[in-house]
Each structure stands twice: as structure tokens, then as C-alpha cells.
């Protein structure tokens, strides 16, 4: 195994917690606390990502070595690792929640490889000073979901944190999955998450709310220097303006990508928003099966629908406004921050148009296309049409003689299709005319659409099937599902079962339809 180069810049350059005792408390004027992972009795590596290992200069064989299994389970440290948990705050469901912090995430350090920085972070490795009343552990089901989804999103081309490994701990963890007074013991697990940075909006909000402006300035300058080095040569005020604008534009792009693949995060609190525009914190997420802009996978959000599919872009903008308010405590030019929010609006509108044009097989977006798209979305929602199947099948529609039977497989309810058939016929006629007006060769149109409309996504029931098998000691389905998800845009022989719409048995099954924040 090659030697590792850890450069733990976050804890070297930013102020830390002077106390080293690992007990729940308020941590003031500091961004991190020293924390040692809590050992587990029987660590077992049950899955890993060859792609993420390669990013770190490692091989799957390296990860199987005893010293690596120990590090990935919290049972030991490799040379250069210096574990810590970070302090941040956030708005949760629209309300300021005060100090939050890494309650069950412990960073091992920042690994440098090929001039790229990667922070390694264990999720579920025990309590930290920010755990509040929790145990700092994670259960197998949520860990499988995070491991698979991190890599599924990467292969879909969606900005995301990565998952290096999934370790079974041998612990039994008690969880009340739906907060209904029925806790049960579940197998424990740990995911090693990997990203260039895990800094969140909430890292800036907490010192701003506390009036710790010196520390806030430190964090801004540190973040730009470490994570946005291309801005370091700019004059100080201009540097911060460009930095905030970039946060806004990458967040806008992320919202477009979530919409493109039908991903719903489920809990877009400001402490779950990455400063790099990455998908972060895979909790009660879900993939849209039947197209529904009001759908949320999160039981906690079932009434308010704050974080439902169609509201994610608006919530991202709201979160950016809260970040702007925090930065305004040390940035005197308020116009800079408003320009960043304006940039979010501009980039989101432009990229959303480009994305929709690509999904629908048009060469470019035109302003009058909004009416056609809105009609389609209304129809898909009224008639329970599978989003992934519909857009993938649409690429093969003969627009000279549109035949709706090509798309009937995407419908969950035949009666609703019949009820709205006239409207669908009219829409397909109008859509076909729009395509024909561009004069695109059908094969070229299909190829372009198939680059953005996946065959395979991590449907909730597929993840649950892998979880059910793992809880019985069979981990092979995790590897098989991950292998399919590595090539989401390519139809793979013998893998049709992974591309089917949600079966009826999964419509209301826990883990397949609704999830909670509990893990």
C-alpha cells in the first residue's frame, strides 16, 4: 500500500475547541472538536467503491487490509489521521435551530492525492460533542442507502459527496424508525464519506448568529483559500463577491440536476447544503416514481411539503438568502450578495431550459416551450406516469406518426390514461410538430436524449430489496445493484428488472414510499 499524505488543514488553520472531553455541550468561538471514534466489536467490510478508492490512490485490496478495516470502522487510525467533528448551526424546516454540528460524523483527516484534497469522514462512528441526545451511530439500512446513493448520483453526473466503504459494526442499534413508540434493535454500520470539503452553509451561519465575527472572517478566508483557490489572486472584496456568486451558481446547477433525474433530497435544511454545490447528507431521500411535483419521501414533511420535489429550487434559493444574511454581518457591500442571488435566478432559468430541451430532444430551448412543458407536467401528474420510463421511451417516439402505445408501459393506472387520452394525443401532436420543426435526424435526437435520461436510477424499492437481503446476511445484492448503477444511461443485457417501474407491493411499503429522518 502506498504511503498516505494527510494534510489536515481545517484543524490546523481554524480555531478549535480547547476542551477534549467528549460530552455534549455548546462549543463557542471554535469550528471543531477533537473526537476519537468509538470502537466496534466485529467490523466487517461489506462493500466499497473502486472509483472512490482510485481517487485516493488506493485499490479495493488496500481497503481489505486489517489496518484499513480498522480505520474505516473507527477501531484504529492510520498515520496522519487526526479525527475531529465540526461545529455549525442551521435552519431546520425554516426555523433557526442554533448549534447543530457533526452529531454522528467524525472526519479522519484530509488526504492529498494527485494534487486533489479529499476529506474522509465516518458516519456512524460514535458520539461527538454535537450529538445532543443521540448515540452517534447509524443503522445498516440508512448506511446502505447512503453508500448506494452517493455512487449512483456520481455515475448519473450529479454533483455529490462520495462513499468509499460500508462497514458492518457487529453492534445492535435501537431505533424508532417512524417515531411511533415502536423502537427495535437493528444492525449498526458505518459509511466512509469522501468529499473535497464538508463545509456547509451552517458553518457560516452559527458564528454570524453568535456575533463571532472574527471567527466568521477567518472561515470565509480559509474556505476561499482552500476550496476556491482559483479566486485567491483576486482583491479581497472582489474575491468574496466572486466566491458567493459561485456558491449561488453551483447550487442552481445542482437543483437543475436533481430535477433532471427525479431526485428528492427530503431534508434541505441549511446545515445540509454544501458550500461546493454537492449533494450532501443522504437521509430520507427518494426518487420520483410516478411524476409528482408535490411528492416528498420524508414522513416529517408529509403535511407541510416544504421539501417536496417541485419546491427544491425555491428552497435552495431561500437557503442562499439565509447564507447571505450571515455573510452580511462582515460584508459591507450588500449589493454583492444580492448580485449572487440574482446569479442563482439567471443560471437556474438558463440551465433549466437547457436541461428540459435535452430531456425532450430539442436542440435548444425557446421561450414558447414553457407552455408545452407545463401541459406535459400537468398530464404526467394527473395520470400517474413513471418519470424515468416516460422520458427514456420518449426518445424512440416516431414523431412523424406518434404512437402512444410506445409509452403505455410508463403508466401506473390504465384508467387514468384512458380518461386523459385525448389530451395526450393533442400533446404528442404538438410535441411532434415542435421536434419536426428543428429537422433533427431521429437517431441523433435519440442519442442526445439518452445521454440525459437514465435507464436506471436508485428506485426506492430497489434500495429496500438490497437492505432486506443485507439484514439477512446477504450482501451480494448491494454489489449487483451498484454495478448496474455504474452505467445508468446504457441499457444492459439481462438487467431489465432494474429498469422497471415501482411494483404495486412497494407503493406503501416502509422504505419504498416514505422514510423518516431516523436512522
Structural class: alpha+beta
Tally of individual helices: 17
Provide the low-confidence segments as ranges.
Answer: none
Portion of residues within helices: 40-55%
Largest sheet: 7 strands, antiparallel
**SSE pattern, N- to C-terminal:** EHEEHHHEEEEEEHEEHHHEEHHHHHHHHH
N/C terminus separation: 34 Å
The average pLDDT value, as a whole number, equals 95
Q: Count the strands?
A: 13
Radius of gyration equals: 23 Å
Assess the beta-strand content as a share of residues: 5-15%
**Overall 3D geometry?**
globular
Structural overview:
The model has no long low-confidence stretch (mean pLDDT about 95). The chain has helices at about 10-15, 50-55, 60-65, 65-75, 140-155, 200-210, 215-225, 235-260, 310-325, 335-360, 370-380, 385-395, 415-420, 420-440, 440-450, 460-470, 475-485; strands spanning about 5, 30-35, 45-50, 85, 90, 95-100, 105-115, 115-125, 140, 160-175, 185-195, 265, 285. The strands form 4 sheets. Strands 1, 3, 7, 8, 9, 10 and 11 form a 7-stranded antiparallel sheet that branches. About 40% of the residues lie in helices and about 15% in strands. The longest helix is centred in the last third of the chain and has 27 residues, at about 335-360. It is of the alpha+beta class. Helix 6 (about 200-210) packs across helix 9, helix 8 (about 235-260) packs parallel to helix 10 (about 335-360) and helix 16 (about 460-470) packs antiparallel against helix 17 (about 475-485).
Amino acid at each position: 500500500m502506498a504511503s498516505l499524505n494527510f494534510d489536515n488543514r481545517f484543524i490546523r488553520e481554524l480555531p478549535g475547541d480547547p476542551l477534549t472531553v467528549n460530552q455534549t455541550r455548546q462549543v463557542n468561538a471554535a469550528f471543531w472538536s477533537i473526537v476519537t471514534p468509538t470502537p466496534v466489536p466485529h467490523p466487517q467490510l461489506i462493500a466499497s467503491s473502486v472509483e472512490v478508492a482510485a481517487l485516493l490512490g488506493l485499490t479495493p485490496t488496500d481497503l481489505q487490509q486489517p489496518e484499513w478495516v480498522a480505520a474505516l470502522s473507527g477501531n484504529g487510525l492510520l498515520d496522519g489521521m487526526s479525527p475531529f467533528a465540526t461545529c455549525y448551526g442551521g435552519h431546520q424546516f425554516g426555523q433557526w435551530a442554533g448549534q447543530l454540528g457533526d452529531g454522528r460524523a467524525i472526519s479522519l483527516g484530509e488526504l492529498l492525492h494527485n494534487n486533489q484534497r479529499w476529506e474522509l469522514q465516518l458516519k456512524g462512528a460514535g458520539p461527538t460533542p454535537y450529538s445532543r441526545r443521540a448515540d452517534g451511530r447509524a443503522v445498516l439500512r440508512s448506511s446502505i442507502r447512503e453508500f448506494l446513493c452517493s455512487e449512483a448520483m456520481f455515475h448519473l453526473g450529479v454533483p455529490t459527496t462520495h462513499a468509499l466503504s460500508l462497514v458492518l459494526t457487529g453492534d445492535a442499534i435501537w431505533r424508532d424508525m417512524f417515531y411511533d413508540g415502536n423502537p427495535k434493535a437493528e444492525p449498526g454500520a458505518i459509511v466512509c464519506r469522501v468529499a473535497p470539503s464538508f463545509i456547509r452553509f451552517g458553518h457560516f451561519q452559527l458564528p454570524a448568529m453568535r456575533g463571532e465575527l472574527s471567527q466568521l472572517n477567518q472561515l470565509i478566508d480559509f474556505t476561499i483559500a482552500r476550496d476556491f483557490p482559483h479566486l485567491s489572486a483576486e482583491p479581497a472584496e472582489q474575491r468574496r463577491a466572486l466566491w458567493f456568486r459561485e456558491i449561488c451558481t453551483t447550487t442552481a446547477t445542482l437543483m437543475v440536476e436533481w430535477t433532471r433525474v427525479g431526485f428528492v433530497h427530503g431534508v434541505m435544511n441549511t446545515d445540509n447544503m454544501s458550500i461546493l454545490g454537492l449533494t450532501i447528507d443522504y437521509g430520507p431521500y427518494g426518487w420520483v416514481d410516478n411524476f409528482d411535483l408535490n411528492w416528498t419521501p420524508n414522513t416529517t414533511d408529509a403535511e407541510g411539503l416544504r421539501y417536496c420535489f417541485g419546491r427544491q429550487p425555491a428552497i435552495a434559493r431561500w437557503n442562499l438568502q439565509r447564507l447571505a444574511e450571515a455573510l452580511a454581518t462582515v460584508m459591507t457591500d450588500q449589493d454583492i450578495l444580492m448580485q449572487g442571488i440574482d446569479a442563482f435566478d439567471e443560471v437556474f432559468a438558463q440551465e433549466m431550459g437547457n436541461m428540459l430541451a435535452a430531456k425532450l430532444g430539442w436542440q435548444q430551448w425557446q421561450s414558447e416551450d414553457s407552455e408545452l412543458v407545463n401541459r406535459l407536467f400537468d398530464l404526467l401528474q394527473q395520470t400517474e406516469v413513471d418519470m424515468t420510463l416516460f422520458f427514456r421511451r420518449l426518445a424512440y417516439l416516431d414523431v412523424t406518426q406518434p404512437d402512444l402505445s410506445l409509452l403505455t408501459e410508463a403508466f401506473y393506472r390504465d384508467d387514468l390514461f384512458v380518461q386523459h387520452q385525448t389530451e395526450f394525443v393533442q400533446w404528442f401532436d404538438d410535441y411532434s410538430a415542435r421536434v419536426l420543426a428543428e429537422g433533427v435526424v431521429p437517431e441523433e435526437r435519440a442519442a442526445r436524449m439518452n445521454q440525459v435520461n437514465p435507464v436506471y436510477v436508485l428506485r426506492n424499492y430497489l434500495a429496500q430489496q438490497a437492505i432486506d437481503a443485507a439484514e439477512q446476511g446477504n450482501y451480494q445484492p448491494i454489489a449487483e445493484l451498484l454495478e448496474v448503477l455504474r452505467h445508468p444511461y446504457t441499457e444492459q443485457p439481462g438487467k431489465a428488472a432494474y429498469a422497471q417501474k415501482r411494483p404495486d407491493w412497494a407503493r406503501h411499503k416502509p422504505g419504498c414510499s416514505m422514510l423518516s429522518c431516523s436512522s
